[in-house]
Amino acid sequence: MQDFFLSFFESLGNLPREIIVLFMSMVPVVELRGAIPVGATLGLSTFSTFVYAVIGNCLPVPFIILLARPLVNYLKKTRVLGWFARWMEKKTEKNRDKIMKRSAFGLFLFVAIPLPGTGAWTGALCAALLDMRFRFALPSIIGGVLAAGCIMTVGTEFVKWIIQIF
Fold first, then answer.
1. What distance separates the 2 farthest-apart alpha carbons in the chain?
2. Which domain holds residue 51?
3. Are residues 24 and 99 in the same domain?
4. Handedness of CA 8, 10, 13, 14 (dihedral sign)
5. 35-78, pLDDT tens digit by residue?
6. Is the same domain home to 161 and 83?
7. SS3 153
8. Could you tell me if 78 and 113 lie in one domain?
């Protein structure tokens, strides 16, 4: 999937490598978990890759937190996507107790673990659907993104080091 996005951004012309990393980290599913290894592949410095990936991953978060609930409420009324909106709400409600038990710290941990399905987009969507307060959700998600960025950067640098040995 990273190759697809990388070739897509390169096909747009001579975009600076930093912008490619920034935009890649804004894409759901890919987020900074995919953008940091790509930045390392493109030859960006470790620090630049980290900064652009974190900024790109955090940019959509406030909009998701603020707009997800009204969007889901609207989608529930439609025939085509109503089932999907109800499924998302049901899945979130099923895990409400686990998430709200730890509240902001639980959200931080959820976003910080760099696994598929956990990230800024999912964390922001959960925060919105659980009606978490913006002032608690946003710092938790940004902290989680920073932690995930550190984990991915260290992991990427470790893999680069192993490759250089062989």
1. 57
2. 2-58+148-165
3. no
4. positive
5. 999 999 888 999 999 999 999 999 999 999 999 999 999 999 99
6. no
7. helix
8. yes
